[in-house]
Amino acid sequence: MRASASVVLIGGGIQGTSIAYPLAKRGVRDVVLVEADCTRRLAGDSSPS
Predict the structure, then answer these.
(1) Which residues pair with 32 in a beta bridge?
(2) What are the two backbone dihedrals, phi and then psi, of residue 19, each rounded to the nearest 5 degrees?
(3) Is residue 12 part of a domain?
(4) Is residue 2's pLDDT more than 80?
(5) 49 within domain boundaries
(6) What is the DSSP letter of 32?
(7) Phi and psi (nearest 5°) for 47?
(8) Is the pLDDT of residue 29 over 70?
(9) Which of 11, 38, 43, 48 is most buried, most CB within 10 Å of its CB?
(10) CA distances from 21 to 3, 14, 31, 32 (A)
(11) Is 47 within a domain?
(12) Distance of CA 17 to the CA centre of its chain
């Protein structure tokens, strides 16, 4: 696994995927899409949304 990426998108909903798709079509090869739920867990928020 690589330690860096050209683009990091936070939130894998419709907006995140709608940004990731055109980037991939334009040839951007290292895009990371992080689910928002993962970011809450990383920040220590254990409360349900």
Answers:
(1) 8
(2) -90, -40
(3) yes
(4) no
(5) no
(6) E
(7) -75, 140
(8) yes
(9) 11
(10) 22, 11, 10, 12
(11) no
(12) 8
In sequence order, what are the residues at sequence separation of 6 or more whose Cβ sits closer than 8 angstroms to the Cβ of residue 2? 30
Which residue in 37, 19, 39 sits closest to 28, CA to CA? 19
How many CB atoms are closer than 10 A to CB 25?
A: 8
Say if residues 6 and 27 touch (Cβ distance below 8 Å).
Answer: no
pLDDT of residue 10: 85
Distance CA 12, CA 32 (A): 10
Residue 22 pLDDT grade (very low, low, confident, very high; cuts 50, 70, 90): very high
Beta-ladder partners of 27: none
* Interatomic CA distance for residues 6 and 38, integer angstroms: 20
Residue 31 lies inside a defined structural domain of this protein = yes
